[in-house]
Design goal:
Number of helices: 20
Structural class: alpha/beta
Shape: globular
Distance between the termini: 188 Å
Helix content: 25-40%
Number of strands: 16
Largest sheet: 8 strands, mixed
Length: 583
């Protein structure tokens, strides 16, 4: 059976060949349509060669293996093509700053797919950072330049200058959605000492700790993760048994502030609380206005009826500080000024203003102008007159701001570290001396480190923070590419107005004038005539009372000068009468 069947197949092939050969001169349906190609002949020769050298059973197995391999390769190829078509790579612009890529989900759509979605496990995107922005070409603020100061010989001191702010709504819309970059330093923690060690070369306090000079030097070695002294070393939470203690309700409320903080402080009842003006309704709802006071100031505010049960004085939410760590109120005031990020751990931006200042521009406009538009995380104004630390130190000594020997010791210490007088070699740094009554900053690790180390210098040396500012700034700048935006003092005076301290205000307060009735314009009526037998005596012209007449443009009689001049006239008339009488 097998041989017959194979013979028949062989005969069929042979008969086909014979037919093709015999019909070369005839008409064949196949040949009339198409002649056999060379490819077909080569396939037939290959087939005969395989049949010649391989058994017929083995030939069938060979075909089966080839077909299986072809199907397997085809499945792999088709599957890979569908994967490439189904997974899409998309670009996302984060805050108009950077672009990241991610793999989308695989979706198949077809007559029988029923929109089946396959979720893919995607790697986490890289952290997004704010990289700043530029105003559109032709914007008025791009063309704005500071005008020259007015030529007023009578006023030579500092004065405000124009500043190009954006409208409040535009400033709010430009608030970054993500934090700015913190070069090198990414994680900053703070030292807490349960058992306080007081072993140090000099300086320090129970509040700020007693870091050694080696620890001070290590704090300027900027690394990705750092732990430094930053006040509040005696407690696990700032304001709780650390010195500079605050009530639990205040600590809770400060933790709820997640956006912008405007902070100020008054200790020793040294200043009046100034209410901000030109503040938008949105800022009143979203910005945290906090005023730190001590118990002396609290007592005055309550006795004067300015502080109610809601702990607010106008827009300011007051926080009473108990157990101040320093006897000097000005040194205590450096805590909220430089360590505001520790008391408001969830806030993103802060604006510090001294207690003697009145804020007259919306906080969002200030942040947009001096931080976001400049792509900066720390902004402070330069001193209006001095730009050299040595000159600033001498000015502090001349004004009696601090003990002269302590100032000299601090300057000599900085000179040994390399402090030199300011020169143009430091450009683009325009000054070594800030006007520290206003600080604008974003709470990122590198700016938090600056204020921590700045506070440590204030705690170790004198409380005159203008002297220590450039030393801390330059140490950090040497190891990172981070810079501070220093703007002109006249620009600072555009958004804050300086008021007098309380003692000066009381001295300048006008005294209540005593009510004095105005002199009569007409003389009083003459007394009734006295009936006498003697003839009446006619008064002379010199003894008649004067009538006061106001000249044109005068508001009224000038009592003091008129009284003195009247007395002189009276004496002159009397003297004349004497001469007449004597004559």
């Amino acid at each position: 059976m097998t041989g017959g069947s194979l013979g028949i197949r062989s005969g069929s092939y042979g008969s086909l060949d014979k037919q093709l050969q015999n019909n070369n001169n005839g008409v064949s349906p196949i040949q009339s349509a198409r002649k056999p190609s060379k490819m077909l002949k080569e396939k037939e020769r290959l087939f005969h060669w395989i049949c010649k050298f391989a058994g017929r059973k083995k030939v069938g197995m060979l075909f089966l293996c080839l077909i299986s391999a072809a199907v397997f390769v085809w499945v792999l190829y088709v599957g890979k093509g569908e994967d490439e078509q189904g997974v899409s790579v998309e670009n996302i612009s984060v805050n108009n700053s950077i672009t990241i890529s991610y793999l989308g989900s695989l979706q198949t759509h077809g007559p029988q797919s029923n929109n089946v979605t396959f979720s893919l496990a995607l790697p986490p995107p890289p952290p997004a950072v704010f990289l700043g922005y530029t105003l559109p070409p032709g914007h008025p603020c791009n063309l704005f330049t500071l005008p020259p100061p007015p030529a007023d010989k009578k006023r030579t001191g500092p004065r405000p200058c124009p500043v190009c702010y954006l409208p409040v709504e535009e400033s709010i819309a430009l608030m970054p959605k993500v934090p700015s970059d913190s070069p090198v330093l990414k994680n900053l923690t703070y030292i807490y000492e349960e058992n306080l060690s007081r072993e140090t070369e000099f300086g320090g306090s129970d509040f700020g700790g007693y870091p050694t000079l080696k620890q001070r030097s290590d704090s300027y070695d900027i690394r990705e993760s750092m732990s430094v002294h930053c006040g509040f070393v005696g407690g696990s939470k700032p304001g709780r048994n650390t010195g500079y203690d605050m009530d639990e309700v205040d600590l809770h409320d400060m933790e709820q502030c997640h956006g912008v903080v405007v902070a100020s402080a008054i200790f020793g009842n040294f200043d009046e609380i100034n209410q901000p003006t030109n503040i938008s309704d949105y800022s009143k709802e979203t910005v945290c206005f906090y005023m730190f006071i001590d118990e002396v100031t609290e007592a005055y505010l309550r006795s004067s009826g300015k502080l109610g049960s809601d702990r607010k004085v106008g827009i300011w939410r007051t926080v009473v500080v108990h157990n101040p760590p320093y006897t000097d109120g000005r040194r205590t005031g450096k805590i909220p000024k430089l360590l505001v990020h520790r008391m408001f751990p969830n806030a993103r931006f802060s604006l510090w203003i001294d207690g003697k200042l009145e804020l007259v521009v919306d906080p969002y406009q200030i942040l947009e102008r001096f931080l976001w538009r400049k792509n900066a995380t720390f902004a402070i104004s330069k001193h209006y007159k001095r730009f050299d630390v040595f000159t600033e130190a001498e000015a502090n000594k001349a004004a009696g701001k601090y003990d002269n020997a302590s100032i000299d010791f601090q300057i000599e210490f900085y000179k040994k570290e390399g402090l030199a007088p300011y020169s143009e070699a430091k450009l683009p740094i325009i000054s070594d001396v800030p006007e520290g009554c206003v600080i604008i900053r974003e709470h990122v690790p590198i700016s938090n480190l600056l204020t921590c180390l700045w506070f440590n210098e204030v705690d170790r040396f004198t409380s005159r923070d203008q002297i220590s500012f450039s030393t801390v700034r330059d140490h950090i700048r040497e190891r990172t590419n981070w810079t501070i935006h220093m703007f002109y003092d006249c620009e600072r005076r555009n958004f804050v107005v300086q008021k007098y301290h309380r003692d000066v205000l009381e001295h300048l307060a006008p005294r209540v004038p005593v009510a004095v009735p105005p002199p009569p314009l007409l003389p009083p009526p003459p007394p009734p005539p006295v009936i006498s037998n003697e003839p009446p005596v006619q008064p002379s012209v010199e003894t008649l009372p004067e009538r006061v007449v106001n000249g044109p443009g005068k508001r009224g009689p000038r009592r003091g000068r008129d009284r003195r001049s009247g007395s002189r006239r009276h004496r002159k008339v009397v003297a004349g009468n004497r001469d007449i009488d004597s004559s």
